[in-house]
Write a structure and sequence with these properties.
78 residues; alpha+beta; 27% helix
């Protein structure tokens, strides 16, 4: 995934649950609605996907060569 697409990058590979979820949602709460966030995490965050969908966010997830997930998140346009 092209990291240049993101305005903010959170590397959560060393974080333990639920910290990646909390940090990501907190960042989205204060981030400009036109910006994109890239989350890098070492497991697929299914609870985060559900929360993003409920709160009007879209995302694109990609499994990388080192088996981490890169998830680009942005607010859906009305």
């Amino acid at each position: 995934m092209d990291h240049a697409l993101a305005n903010l990058v959170i590397d959560a590979r060393e974080m333990e649950p639920p910290e990646p979820f909390v940090v990501t949602m907190d960042a989205l709460d204060v981030m400009d609605p036109s910006h994109k966030l890239l989350l890098i995490i070492n497991r697929e965050p299914h609870p985060l996907y559900r929360a993003l969908q409920k709160q009007g966010y879209a995302y694109q997830a990609e499994l990388t060569a080192d088996y981490s997930f890169e998830i680009l998140i942005w607010r859906k346009q009305p």
